Amino acid sequence: MDVILQAFVYGLTLTALYLPIALGLNLIFGVLRIINFAHGDLYMLGAMFTWWFLLNAGVGFVPSLILGIAVVSVMAIVIERFLLRPMGADILSALVMSIGLGLVLQTSTLLIAGSDVKHYSFPLQGTLSFGGTNLSMERMAITVLGLGGTILFYLLLQSTPLGRSIRAVAQDADAATLQGINPSNIRIITMVIGTALAAMGGALAASIFGVEPFMGGGPLIFSFVVIVMGGLGSIEGTFLAGLTLGLAESFITIYVGATEAAMASFIVLYLVLLLRPNGIMGRARLTGGYL
Amino acid sequence: MTKWITIGLFVILFAFPIAVTSDPYWLSLLSKLYINSMFAISMWPLFVIGRLTLAHAAFYGMGAYGVSLLMIKLQMNFWLAVPIMLVVVAVFSLLFGWPSLRIQGAQFVMSTFAFAEVFRLVYLRFDNPFGGAQGLFGIPSATPIALPGLPAIAFNSFVNQYYMMIIALAILALVYYRLVHSHLGIVMQSIHDAGRLTSALGVNVFRFEMACFTSTALGAAFAGSLYAVWAHYLEPNLFGFHKSIDAQAYVIIGGASNVLGPIFGAAFMTLMPEYLNLAREAAPIITGSALILTMLFLKGGFVTLPKEAPKWGRAIARAVNNPNRAKSWQKPEPEAVKEV
After folding, report:
1. How near does any CA of chain B get to the CA of A247, in Å?
2. Residue B8 near residue B142, CB atoms below 8 Å
3. Nearest-angstrom CA–CA distance, B288 and B267
4. What is the complex's ipTM, to 2 decimals?
5. Which residues in chain B are closer than 8 Å to A262, comparing Cβ atoms?
6. Which of A87, A107, A224 sits opposite B288 (nearest CB)?
7. What is the pLDDT of residues B262-304, one digit of tens each?
8. Which residues of A fall within a CB distance of 8 Å from B249?
9. CB within 8 Å of A118: residues ≥ 6 apart
10. Could you tell me the pTM of the whole model?
11. DSSP letters for A201-218
């Protein structure tokens, strides 16, 4: 019983940490039509800048977090404007570009900051006993923050004028232009929102796992599986698939092993691509092939 | 023109150990360059039909691990192990390609990514027989060839190994050159340009894509088996999707319109980290920045430089004559690109 509860709580934390990243990646795909392979590295940079501000700027955790997210958001603007936009509508060129960008970001971080794992701690510490299991306050706060950010993002997308514009561009950029929306601006804003979600996820995750240049790989793969399962372009599907996969990964890791859990997620990714290329809840018209 | 440049290049490289140096460092480095070139050139047909794949590190790894295990566990002759492994890889590539090639665009890239990573995890997870995270040690050199009436040729010296690699590369380059410049290659090109039209003309597009996929997988496995006898040591992380990215980058940077493109790309990416004295973990910065610069300024790759350079010259002349021209900064600067 204890182990089951522990696995459940761990799975929930994992979901709360990774869900913003998957949502950001999915949003970027929905609007920019790019599978962003650099997303995991932007997640890592969010954590790295937060750590740097905490160490060097002499401000608390929350201001450092906000500064870190801000720096990565500015990078997102530069990336969209000068690297991704010149690729035009060619999905594969943009994909190659994001792969190259990911390699540059990862390796330059490695060269500047070194490969050692850096730690910082969340301001809230201590444990809470609950039904025979010990829950760390830190993890609970991070879960709440991650899920809170995700819900805020969902509200922004569903019930604000900006969210409506973003959804309009995702559905049909030409029709959105006719309604007076500028798709170029919406693409930049989307890139910033998606990247800021990743940076937030990274900064929160790093207070548990620590910061190192290669930390982006795991969440990136998790996000791939989640957005393919939930459907490229489908926000609700991402929620559902994220929760399912987070819990499944936690249980398989505890009962079988971490390598098997990773293998299982890849096999699920492959099978879903094969059987339902548009995902379980995906909309076909958002994912047109390039032929 | 390309033909004569290629032949001249091979003649010069063939004379290299005799004419320039027989320093083991150089011979070993160039052998590695030839292995990477073989991997790069075997990706060529897939670029002709316009598919990007991250799966081929798995086939490269299958060739390397398969041949090594056959040589270590069964004491099999290298020259027998390679064909056996090629048959196995052909089966795997058909089994994977048959369902996957129905997926298009970015989703196809993600499915190949999953394929490559599953195989990396298999090598990592199963200590027996793959050696697990510690890797696989003690892989012998290629078995000597004993032809009747001639002295046996052993491959444990650097010079002989160098010749083995360059001859293998020459054969592979010729095979893929003939493939791409055959009737098959014309169909491949038309699948890239207009897939639906080709299919309307009665061509079974799917079958051609399968043929391309399997031929590239075989080339990758062949390069992998030579890598095993060159390195004598294998570890799972050498065969993750990063290796596939490298292989794609060789062709993208070099250019897919010409047989020299993949070879140039592989040469650049093998020699540059050595020249800059970068550690293995730091080498991806070269790959990444070369990919970004290529995608921004030289989409056709390095082989289109002679065609593209005059255009830049004219664009720069225009920008200089009219400094107020809007967005003149978007024109490429030759300094930034010559590095590629």
Report:
1. 20
2. no
3. 16
4. 0.85
5. 117, 121
6. A107
7. 999 999 999 998 888 888 788 889 999 999 999 998 888 888 8
8. 100
9. A51, A210, A211, A212
10. 0.86
11. HHHHHHHHH-B-TTTTHH
